[in-house]
Amino acid sequence: MSGALLVAGTTSDAGKSMMVAGLCRLLARKGIRVAPFKAQNMSNNSAVTMEGGEIGRAQAMQARAAGLEPSVRFNPVLLKPGSDRTSQLVVMGQVSGTVAAGDYFHHRAWLADVINAELDSLRSEFDAVICEGAGSPAEINLRATDLANMGLARAAELPVIVVGDIDRGGLLAHLFGTVAVLEPDDQRLISGFVVNKFRGDPALLAPGLDQLERLTGRPTYGVVPFDDGLWLDAEDSLSVQAHRMVGIPGPARGVDSLRVAAVRLPRISNSTDIEALACEPGVLVRWVSDAADVADADVVVLPGSKATVSDLAWLRERGLADAVIAHAASGRTVLGICGGFQMLCRTIDDSVESGQRRVEGLGLLDADIVFEPAKTLRRWNGPLRGYEIHHGQIARASEDSWLDVGIRRGAVYGTHWHGLLDNDDVRRRWLTDAAMTGGRKGFVVAADVEVTTRRDAQLDTMADLLASHLDVGAVMDLLDRGVPSRPVITSTICGP
What we know:
One of its GO terms (molecular function) is catalytic activity. The protein is of the alpha/beta class. It has helices at residues 16-29, 57-65, 108-125, 150-156, 171-180, 184-187, 202-216, 275-278, 308-317, 320-329, 339-344, 424-437, 451-469, 472-481, and strands spanning 3-9, 34-37, 40-42, 46-48, 54-56, 77-81, 86-91, 94-100, 128-132, 160-165, 190-198, 220-225, 258-263, 268-269, 283-288, 299-302, 304-305, 333-337, 345-350, 357-360, 365-381, 385-397, 400-402, 406-409, 412-415.
């Protein structure tokens, strides 16, 4: 076997990341050397690679599924939105500048060269490369600058599988329409479909899939059921919804539960840090965006942000800044991670992201932050594991050290480390202290929860779902033989 395919989606959050991860794990189990690839990602959830570069968090997770260390090769272009119109451009793991949406066309040619060269290199080294698209290939207004969907598929002659989330409704129309709006040379590459998150009796769906095949000439390779025990590193921070529970915690081991309010910042980054808390039995984690939702929490977490100063202003506008300060004044626990940590300090001097220079922080930690042009990208693989991605640096601090990974004042903690709470001993001690501080003396921390093991179990669950509900033989055939012959749809529905 020596092939590649592209998993595209009808929408963002349709299941592309899950399917790529599941296929990587499934193929790796068969002894096939497989690698993930996402040509261009737009996400503020990122991870640090073995080369000291930066890639999308989902691609790091997919690399783990394939039994590989994360590498910049798996996500050569990363866009990190700092506003609605501009993004930081990261190429082969390193910051290459800031681009506006309207100017991106001018970067396409040289970025395409980087992407195509890297994909060619991976294909020469691995038996299979499973590529992930971005958003939807039906966004034909963006086709001229597309590097991750049909632009990549056309350049590399990749068969394309389109996956859709049926839980949202209207999926058959989405699948048909995704093919129908494409130009003939793009349509030719669409090989088939996968239905994701199906609930109920598949026999009821079968007539619709049969008709879809008659209309499009393309089969459905599988109907993957909804699994409420499946959680996944979020690719897109927009999928993190305020007031939504994070994960499905098990029953409390003691008589008390611990309530955690994680603030859903507008430019949140690395929201996956919160998942480690949601793994714990009896820890109830909610994303919140209103001051009232902080009042009954035992712990408040301010996660990372790609726009620290802007998101700090948002905290103040929403009344959340005062709510967090009052929470800390009552003696209850506050944790700030990366950008959230910087917000807890006395001052932030930012001439890099916002250009606003010195602004007042929340003042819960006696420290000052200065943004530097060079971004810190660092992985820690010692007794404690984690990674850092930040422009802001501690210029002064008079607070106590916290495990050599940050600083603390009483029950207020701050760290630049992402993934710190994945360290089981650190998380257990911190939760125990937070429960005591919050008066939850009946809360008992589980001694048998291992987050890394839970994450690996999720990858196995994804692979198991695909093994049971996907025509794996047909997918392997795409990898072996490439693009199959498929008809072009000519539909009056889409106009002339």
